[in-house]
Amino acid sequence: MTVEERPVNAGNDEPKDRFPVGMRVLAVDDDPTCLRLLDTLLRRCQYHVTTTSQAITALKMLRENKNRFDLVISDVHMPDMDGFKLLELVGLEMDLPVIMLSANSDTKVVMKGIAHGAVDYLLKPVRIEELKNIWQHVLRRRKFDSKDQNNSNHPEKPQGSGESGQGNLAGGNADKNAKQNRKRKDQDEDEDEDCEDNGLENEDPDTATQKKPRVVWSVELHRKFVAAVNQLGIDKAVPKRILDLMNVERLTRENVASHLQKYRLYLKRISCVASQQANMVAALGGKDPSYLQMASLDGFGDFHALNGSGQLPNAALTSLPPAGMLGRLNTPAGLGIRGLAPSGMIQLGRAQNSSNPINDLGKLRPVVLSGNRNGNLLQGMPTSLELDQLQQSKCISRIGEFSGRNEQTVFPVAGGFSETAVTIGSSNNSFLTVANNPLMLQGHPQLTQSRGLRNPSSVNIAPRNPEPFDIGGGVSSHVSDQNRCNDNWQSAVPLTGFPSNSIPLGTPFNHADLGHSNLTDTISQMGSHIGNNPLDICSTSIVPAPLQDSRSDMQCQANILIGNNVQHDSSKFSNFGGLGNNLDQSLNGPKQRWEDHRQDYSTNSNLLFSSINSSLPTHGVVSQLTQRLGQNTVVSNQNVDTSLLSQSNSGAYLLQHNMDTPIRLKEEYSLEQTQAQNGFISNSCGSLEDLMAAMIKQEQQEAKLMDGGDIGYEVYPLRTFPNGIYSALLSFLAMYPVLFPTIEHWHENPFKPSEIR
Amino acid sequence: MAERCRQMLKSFVQSLYDEGMLDLQFAQLQALQDASNPSFVADVIKLFCQDTEKIIMELNKYLSERVVDFQGMDSYVHQLKGSSSSIGAQLIKTACNEFRQACDSNCRKGWKKVSFPMVLEGHSV
Questions:
Q1: What does the pLDDT look like over A611-670, one tens digit per residue?
Q2: Distance in Å from the first CA to the final CA of chain A
Q3: Of A733, A356, A698, whose CA–CA distance to A551 is shortest?
Q4: Contact A635, A707 (CB under 8 A)
Q5: CB proximity list for A82: less than 8 A, separation 6 or greater
Q6: Residue limits of the HPt domain (chain B) (predicted)?
Q7: How far apart (Å, rounded) are the C-alpha atoms in residues A713 and B50?
Q8: Which positions in chain B touch A77 (Cβ < 8 Å)?
């Protein structure tokens, strides 16, 4: 650290070389002795210190000027407010790195802190050596933000920088971030919130952490993009011209370039898969995008999914969520997605694993449309569920990671899906597993194991669309296997999407819910929801497969789904919840969602749930998931998903960016988180609207907690979601049982509508 | 004269170290005191004593009840532990730990009050 004198001024634009001197720290501790000591120590480190013994005062200070501080250090035990609560709020509202402080060295408490999104956890007595290094967290956070923004989506670079939305806004920090593909996992922060900021660009340019606005490839945006590309001709489509044609503000050539790259990959994937199964592809197309997008359930076919990588809008999202989740969770998400996407889709995802899954997914979209999407979604969801179950922290981190990593994870997932979708017709199972595996591999070896997916089950998935079904079936089987490891969320998720399939999926899912009692509950709940909203949850149907096997997958998937769901505007609902619906709809819609999902992904875990149920975009879910993930040791936030992880980050913030409804979802999502998914699930059954309503309610509840924040749901770091997400996931999982009566069903006749539901 | 006082102080503090009442954290505190912060240690100790007194009073109240609310006490003890460890009051910290363990096992244990007055005295220097 340089020891130069640095005037304290707002903004992170202080020259790098002077940082960390003069870093503005807010210290909160009810113990005057410690506070005084902390104050002195921090001043000794040449930081600029503000102290308060009241958490409420601290919040007030933070809220009145977001740029006033770079870092917050807070005690865990405080009389007026729980330290974790403060942590969440700060993470959500201001997205500042928060360090926890406590005399309690109990591992569980530390984990909880990480799960809630703390970037670090210090023990009392605090030593100056430790304080000398805290500036790293600030820098890291900044970099992430910048990177995301500048990152031009390298799907191939799933590493942490995943979240990069392609916004290359501000070149300043972006420069360093853009170049660094920091692996999310490497960050001990689970603040995947960065990913969550998927919101539309320039989400919050003035944040102390200097976040660069991220470009979110919403469905509409993606549609425009595709239109422009088609107009120019895929061979001739160059970023500059596409940009001109699209005529969108705040979109840079770099954004378009990276998006185009992803799209190309997606198309490649699609074409490969398509050759295998025209039908499947078609069926899957709808589905895949959905799951890819998680948020944008619109049918995975949409390229959005492809966009996944930084934003992985549709495909990516769905796949990402799983992927993201996978990263965190164990790639259940990935699996989930796979499961979701009708087997064909999954395969696509699989193939892609490399980060171009999205591309494929995009292709799948058209194909899968029907069943697959659900699958994807589900996958996402399970992941989220899984997260909850598995480890809140993990989930969050996953999610958070996911956002960041979306590219990574998503891709595989997406790829898997797309592939699966395509192949579903033919050999779903094989693909599914493959697809799933890749995804799973990403995050967790477990997943891969579970990937074993029961092919048969997946096949059974009630074929809403015969084709898609196959895919879904195949997928589900795979997924289920995979899910097994984690939570068959995935299967559950997809199932939901698939009305007909959902049931089978649901069941399997429930079964899959092996260890996670919670998940099962949620899934069962979800299952019921899903069953109810078969159409809406198109994705769910797809999910079934995964569900069975890995609960964890479910989580991921759930997350994914949620993410997908969330992303969808209420109108888009179809994608997520109504994968079935989406199938019919153009897949493009979901694409946009996808992006949202991505962000939400972290928080999406919750979202997925909602979506699954009512195909509501579960932005929140995802975000929650991310929070949960926080584990990456992140705080479970940093979990989160850091992002996803804010842990109960209200998906709202994600939503906002994307759409109105999404925002609501986020809110709801956050509410969801807090609330048992049950409420959530029950609502969603009917439709996304219900889900949203449920979510909103929850959101409101959450909102109450978070009042004051101008979060506007935009910035809900995933961190805050953990609770919500988990619950969402759980609920989702719980639904599964309902949705999928039994795993066996899968094998038999999963696709039978009656059974499914 | 001043020198003598300083010497006495030093030896006193040293004795506290020897007794195990203070640990290295206190040394850190001392190191933090400098020209820009001349009375840091004294201030901190003062704060600590005030805070600790309150906590001890609360704990006494708890202990004097027939049915002791260990849970409630636990939070206070935790607080005390945090404070004492921050300034290096080792003995108190240890006592806190033991007390907490005792609370966990739900058995009544004599609170080590003895250490407190000593420490407080020591810190008042």
A1: 333 433 333 333 333 344 333 333 333 333 333 333 333 333 333 344 444 334 344 434
A2: 61
A3: A733
A4: no
A5: A76
A6: 37-125
A7: 43
A8: 75, 78-79, 82
